[in-house]
Design a protein that fits this description.
Elements (H helix, E strand, L loop, with lengths): L1 E7 L6 H8 L4 H8 L4 H21 L9 E3 L5 E3 L6 E7 L2 E7 L3 E7 L5 H7 L2 H8 L4 H21 L11 E2 L4 E4 L2 E13 L2 E8 L17 H11 L1
Antiparallel strand pairs: 1-5, 2-3, 4-5, 6-10, 7-8, 8-9, 9-10
Length: 233
């Protein structure tokens, strides 16, 4: 089972709404959010945590929320007491994304980024770099760059290594990730859920079954869900 939610978290930049929403998050997520010095960072962090709780509640009802999360040495999150349920979160710009699955999963969302040739050379394979630089317009180059970047980020999250894994050692050009020339069993799918952002999800196939990626990813109205909780609280 694989589920992915995307939400706008811009409403949490309002300090009053942020403060009211904070009490619905775990102590760990509250601390992470408040550690940011600016309200935008606080909103992104809190929004991602609350969105994760929402997708967990709707997908794996046996998991109590707010979820208790632990982290490995590379910073990869996991659910305490539920080792067979995998989680991943991401945030960028005004968006947050959360993925949960019964197999290892990683999600990454980015607002469309300007292509940086230095990053291409350092982090992409030769074929990936060539694909980006062969685009004939800046817009197309930025889109391809952002797509490949989110695919790479989603894979290193799925394997639990984060940036401890060299990004140039594996290719994300195909559906299946190829690492040092070998098949990995990890598959990736990318989406353009909004015109200004791109999202990629990576997950491990189970037995011979490929990950059941969503056909599309639409915006989940986190603001409405929280507004209802305010009335109930």
């Amino acid at each position: 089972m694989l589920n992915v939610f995307l939400a706008s978290i811009e409403f949490l930049t309002d300090e009053s709404i942020f403060s009211k929403s904070l009490k619905f998050a775990s102590k760990e997520r509250q601390q992470k959010s408040l550690a940011y010095s600016h309200q935008t960072g606080r909103a992104r962090s809190l929004g991602a945590g609350l969105l994760l709780d929402e997708v967990l509640h709707r997908t794996f009802k046996e998991v109590p929320v707010p979820a208790e999360i632990t982290f490995n040495k590379n910073g990869a999150p996991s659910l305490k007491d539920f080792p067979s349920i995998y989680i991943s979160i991401s945030h960028s710009g005004n968006y947050a994304a959360a993925a949960v699955s019964s197999t290892p999963v990683g999600v990454d969302i980015e607002t469309i980024r300007k292509c940086r040739t230095g990053i291409c050379k350092k982090c992409f394979t030769e074929k990936e770099e060539l694909l980006v630089l062969s685009e004939t317009t800046q817009e197309a180059q930025d889109m391809t760059f952002s797509k490949l970047w989110t695919r790479k980020e989603s894979y290193i999250k799925a394997i639990g290594k984060g940036l401890a894994q060299s990004l140039s050692q594996f290719s994300v050009l195909e559906d299946e990730i190829i690492h040092d020339g070998s098949r990995t069993g990890f598959f990736c799918k990318s989406y353009l859920p909004q015109k200004d952002c791109i999202l990629s999800v990576c997950s491990l196939k189970k037995d011979e079954n490929l990950p059941e990626f969503p056909e599309k990813i639409s915006l989940f109205n986190l603001e409405t869900v929280l507004s209802k909780r305010f009335l109930e609280f």
